[in-house]
Amino acid sequence: MSNFQSQPIRYYTQEEVQQILNVAIARQVYQGEFTRSQLLEIAADLGITPAELDVAEQTWQQQQGELQKRQAFNQYRQANLRRDLGRYGIVNGILVLINLLTGFSTPWSLYVLLGWGLKLSLNAWNVYHPDGEAYELAFQRWYRKHQFRNFINTWIGRLLNA
After folding, report:
1. What is the DSSP letter of 47?
2. By the 8 A CB rule, do 137 and 145 touch?
3. Can you tell me whether residue 77 is helix, strand or coil?
């Protein structure tokens, strides 16, 4: 008992507590999923009220929805980049072939190849480095367009069903 009393009391910040608990939960071997009642029980053990847990759960659900939207947007951008790469390869391959067949005295096809390649590489940089204001603006523009399409499709569906 004297050994317990001789150790100083340790204090942790809220961030440190969250990190320690995250590590402990990740290390815990648990088969299956937690039920809502188990979540409430864990929250009660941590001193979290059901109202606070509800707010946290709603915030988490909103974050998950936002994450899914961003993943869909990133997949859309990557698909567009793959399509553009295909077009680039086909068109520039044909142009270089035409340039070779007509005599390579003036390499005009290389100017097209380099110019389009520069544009494509800048686009690839934007697709695979999603940060900053430009990404956020592109995401907002895509999301508004996506919402508008959904609205129109819903409206047309209701009109046709009526």
Report:
1. T
2. no
3. helix
Separation in Å, CA 89 to CA 76, 94, 106, 132? 20, 8, 21, 30
Phi first, then psi, for residue 7 (nearest 5°) are -80, 135
Contacts of 56-62 with CB under 8 Å at 24 or more apart are: none
What pLDDT score was predicted for residue 3?
Answer: 54
Match 């999603």 to its residue by tokens: 130
The Cα–Cα gap between 77 and 75 comes to: 5
**The amino acid at 61:** Q
- Do residues 115 and 161 touch, judged by C-beta distance below 8 A? no
What is the per-residue pLDDT across 2-40, written as a single tens digit (0 to 9) for each?
A: 555 667 888 888 888 888 888 887 777 666 777 888 888
Q: How confident is the model at residue 153 (pLDDT cuts 50, 70, 90)?
A: very high
The reply to whether the predicted model has a pTM over 0.85 is no
Is 70 within 8 Å of 143 (Cβ atoms)?
A: no
What string of H, E and C letters represents the secondary structure of 80-131? HHHHHHHHHHHHHHHHHHHHHHCCCCCCHHHHHHHHHHHHHHHHHHHHHCCC
User: What phi, psi does 78 have (nearest 5°)?
Assistant: -65, -40
Question: What 3-state DSSP class applies to 20?
Answer: helix
